[in-house]
Structure formats: structure tokens, C-alpha cells
Design a protein that fits this description.
The chain has 182 residues and is an alpha+beta fold. The protein contains 5 helices and 4 strands, in the order αααβαβββα. Strands 1-2-3-4 form a 4-stranded mixed β-sheet. A hairpin with a 4-residue loop joins strand 3 and strand 4. Helix 3 packs across helix 5 and helix 4 packs parallel to helix 5. The longest helix has 33 residues. The radius of gyration is 26 Å and the shape is flat.
Length: 182
């Protein structure tokens, strides 16, 4: 085969999508991506799910803490009832409001950002050790109006959104901890 013929053959192969598809298939064949927890998602996953469900969560001290706790219980248990709790989760939640928009006419704040900071710790009471700990920050904004009830409801909705966001972040961190401890 002449050099010119070889060059034409190589160019024809490179112009077709087949080599790209084969190269992509070879590259992705080595990937080991899987969900951290969930039914039917691979080996070791059931253990992570069981470890998450074995976490008892300290009681809530206020309404936003109760929202956070409820979401964590839902995330950890995945709808199951686990009788034996092997770990204890303690947490503190602090929240603050910051004005982020000011009305031009009155100079009063029109929008606020609610920030919830959650410090959490997972303890193994038998070994008396901390398994993992961390801090999560979640924010949600809300608008204020001249109606009192609307303001109360808007702030409560922002608290709910911040609690949900913080609980989802905590769930991800703790499930990652259990998944990497295998």
C-alpha cells in the first residue's frame, strides 16, 4: 500500500464517528461511578443505607431545628423503621437574617437572606468516639411586605428551605463518610 493510500485511509477513519465511539467506550469502561446509597445500586450500598438508618438524632429545640430533624430522619431511614440505633447525632443550629435589598422610597428592607449554620457530630456511644463532624451553611431568601401574616409565612418558608438544604448536605456528607470507610 502506498503512503498516499495509507494517508487517505487514516483520514477516512478519523472522519467517521466510529473511532470516537470506540475511544469513548474504552475510556468510560474503566469508570466506577455508582450511587453512594440506595436500593439495588451495587455492593456495599446496603451497608451504607443500614449505617445511616442506625443514627439516632437528638431532639429539636425549636421549629427550624424540628424541620431539620424531620428531614434528616426521612433521609437516613429511607422510609424504613430501624429498631436498633448504633450511633448518636448531636447538632446545633444557629440562624440569622440579613437585609439584601432596600426599598428606594421608604428605605426599609424589602428582601432578607436567612442563613442557617448547622454544626453536627456523629458519635459511637459504645467506643465513645466521634466518627465524623462538620459544619453546614444553608441560605434562603424571602421578601417582606406590608402584611404581617405574609411576612411570617415568607420567613417560615425560608426556614423550611434552609433546613431542607442543610439536611440534604449533612446526609450527603455522612453517607460519603460511611461509603469511604469500607
Amino acid at each position: 500500500m502506498s503512503e498516499n493510500t495509507q494517508m487517505h485511509l487514516i483520514l477516512r477513519i478519523l472522519k467517521s464517528p466510529t473511532p470516537a465511539i470506540i475511544a469513548l467506550a474504552l475510556l468510560t469502561a474503566a469508570c466506577n461511578v455508582r450511587p453512594v446509597y440506595g436500593p439495588g445500586s451495587g455492593s456495599g450500598v446496603e451497608q451504607v443505607s443500614d449505617e445511616m438508618a442506625a443514627i439516632a438524632i437528638d431532639p429539636a429545640k425549636d421549629r427550624i431545628s424540628q424541620e431539620l430533624r424531620n428531614r434528616l430522619i426521612f433521609n437516613f431511614n429511607l422510609g424504613r423503621s430501624i429498631a436498633e440505633k448504633k450511633y448518636q447525632m448531636s447538632y446545633t443550629l444557629k440562624q440569622s437574617d440579613d437585609a439584601i435589598a432596600i426599598e428606594a422610597r421608604s428605605g426599609a428592607p424589602a428582601s432578607y437572606r436567612l442563613t442557617a449554620i448547622v454544626k453536627f457530630r456523629i458519635l459511637d456511644p459504645v467506643a465513645n468516639t466521634t466518627l465524623t463532624a462538620g459544619t453546614v451553611r444553608a441560605s434562603a431568601s424571602y421578601d417582606r411586605s406590608s402584611q404581617s401574616f405574609a411576612n411570617i409565612r415568607a420567613r417560615r418558608d425560608a426556614e423550611n428551605r434552609a433546613a431542607k438544604s442543610a439536611a440534604d448536605e449533612i446526609t450527603a456528607r455522612i453517607s460519603t463518610y460511611f461509603a469511604t470507610q469500607r
